[in-house]
């Protein structure tokens, strides 16, 4: 079985989006290109990344022009079949990485998110997400679209056959008043609801500790088919996918160590309930 890379998945996802926007089936597109529908399917899932020449032919058959065409061709011209990491700096490459992340989240069976700074995106309320984006100076005309995308990502937690999601967050994250007491109280109530899902494990790691793996910064481990995993890291201006097996194993070990020193799920829920009451008092 071909091991799809995150970049190949992003390229395939962009091609699929362009095809679906034009209401064209995989079979019809494949016929126009002289391909079989199975090949077209593998291109869109990232199992068979197209050459730049084939990508250009696909975009021509779809009538994709302008900046969108050039963005996809730039991605196709890179190495989409190998490599140990994929670094994206600035837009539009960060948007391309987001496409890959969304695709990987849909395919994953298990996702582990370690975050000492904010509540993981899959567990955020819309108000919390909006407050974080405003604080990060996201342009006003982009905020609602980004909020909608993030809220849509949560579907993988509640769909039939949902992913198994583990969130390991700093206890300090639960005590911050992001967006003000009203917004934070709503976020904490949302967390309580999500924490009661059978497929969601939420644990807070205590603040009163020595240095540990959870303090190096946020990271996400996504386990896809046959136990294969990739790691995603993100900061203010860049994103990084790590796919080298040895490096990924280091992050998996770090996540296990953070989980081992974190509070129990029951104690975490107690802490969230306590902080929710405190926030609600602040709104009176």
UniProtKB/TrEMBL annotation:
Domain HTH cro/C1-type intervals: 15-69
UniProt GO molecular function: DNA binding
Pfam families on file: DUF5753, HTH_31
CDD domains associated with the record: HTH_XRE (cd00093)
Protein name (Swiss-Prot/TrEMBL): Transcriptional regulator with XRE-family HTH domain
Organism listed in the record: Saccharothrix violaceirubra
């Amino acid at each position: 079985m071909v091991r799809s890379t995150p970049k190949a998945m992003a390229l395939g996802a962009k091609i699929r989006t362009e095809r679906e926007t034009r209401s064209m089936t995989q079979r019809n597109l494949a016929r126009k290109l002289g391909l079989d529908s199975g090949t077209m399917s593998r291109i869109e899932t990232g199992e068979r990344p197209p050459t730049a020449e084939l990508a250009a032919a696909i975009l021509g058959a779809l009538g994709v022009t302008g900046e969108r065409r050039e963005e996809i061709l730039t991605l196709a011209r890179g190495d989409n079949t190998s490599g140990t990491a994929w670094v994206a700096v600035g837009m539009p490459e960060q948007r391309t990485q987001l496409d890959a992340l969304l695709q990987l989240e849909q395919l994953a069976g298990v996702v582990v998110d370690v975050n000492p700074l904010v509540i993981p995106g899959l567990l955020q309320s819309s108000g919390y997400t909006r407050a974080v984006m405003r604080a990060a100076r996201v342009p006003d005309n982009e905020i609602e679209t980004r909020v909608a995308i993030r809220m849509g990502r949560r579907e993988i937690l509640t769909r039939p056959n949902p992913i198994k999601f583990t969130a390991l967050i700093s206890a300090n994250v639960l005590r911050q008043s992001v967006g003000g007491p009203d917004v934070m109280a709503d976020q904490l109530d949302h967390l309580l609801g999500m924490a009661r899902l059978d497929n969601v494990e939420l644990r807070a790691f205590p603040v009163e500790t020595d240095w540990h793996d959870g303090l190096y910064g946020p990271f996400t481990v996504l386990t896809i088919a046959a136990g294969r995993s990739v790691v995603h890291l993100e900061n203010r201006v860049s994103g990084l996918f790590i796919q080298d097996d040895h490096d990924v194993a280091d992050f998996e070990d770090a996540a296990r160590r953070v989980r081992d020193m974190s509070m129990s799920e029951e104690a975490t829920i107690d802490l969230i309930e306590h902080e929710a009451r405190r926030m609600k008092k602040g709104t009176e």
